[in-house]
Design brief:
about 250 residues, alpha/beta, Rossmann fold, about 10% strand, globular
Length: about 250
């Protein structure tokens, strides 16, 4: 699947949504490889896996971003997700395509999360003069979230250009960049390694232990481990039980 929009890069500043996970860290490396000055944007939104904020801080510092913005919003007030409410995180689900109902949205979906995050990113882009926003959505190895689909990104990009001063005045065309949208998790890892990404600094688990160790059983852990296995690379992070990404 192609990216929603691609034009030659002329502006030097970009906003990168950075969760501290594998995908967003790879996207940050891609943006840097294209020569952008980066404004990284992370959210402390009441997620149970708040250890990702510390990961994002480490990654942003190592990447020497121009500024790392951390926004506090409390989506626990709305709930409705295993990540922001007292709902158990599913473990050991069979994620094989034949076993997953594509119409069923997992309970780890946070209602409107990417819409909220991208709205903040659009606001920040207007303030810092960026016309490129990078987000690590993926339409292949993902958990069935509706706001990770290319058609959603297309629609949001169109809306953003209708809703911003720069778009209305036709000074610039805001692009929502999704360089990972058509890549498998293994391909993402291979690409990241070629760009020098240190995946030991990342975290993916939805339900980490008290020391930040990954459970190895939630959807995010399973997809991550599968990606490392298929890429033939050892997963460098700690798991609650011994697991090998390259086995």
């Amino acid at each position: 699947m192609p990216e929603p929009s691609r034009v030659s890069v002329s502006e030097s500043t970009a906003v990168v949504l950075l969760s501290g996970g594998l995908d967003s860290t790879t996207v940050l490396a891609i943006a840097k490889s294209e020569g952008f000055a980066i404004h990284a944007l992370s959210f402390r939104y009441g997620q149970r896996h708040s250890v990702e904020i510390e990961a994002a801080k480490r990654i942003a510092k190592r990447a020497s971003v121009r500024k790392h913005h951390i926004v506090d919003i409390d989506l626990r007030q709305l709930g409705g997700s295993a990540l922001t409410d007292d709902i158990p995180v599913p473990k050991d689900r069979d994620l094989a395509p034949s076993a997953v109902d594509s119409r069923e949205i997992p309970v780890t979906y946070v209602p409107a999360r990417n819409t909220i995050f991208l709205s903040y990113a659009v606001a920040l882009a207007e303030v810092v003069g960026a016309s490129n926003i990078f987000i690590g959505v993926n339409a292949l190895d993902y958990s069935g979230y509706p706001d990770c689909r290319p058609e959603y990104i297309h629609a949001f990009e169109k809306m953003a250009n209708l809703a911003t001063r720069a778009g209305v005045e036709e000074k610039t065309n805001l692009l929502i960049r999704t360089p990972l949208v058509s890549l498998s998790k293994a391909a993402i890892i291979t690409l990241g390694k070629s760009l020098g990404v240190d995946y030991s600094q990342t975290t993916s688990c939805y339900d980490p232990g008290p020391g930040g160790e990954a459970c190895g059983r939630c959807d995010a852990c399973q997809l991550r481990l599968k990606g490392f296995r298929e890429a033939g690379v050892e997963d460098p992070i700690a798991y609650a039980t011994a697991r090998s990404g390259a086995s």
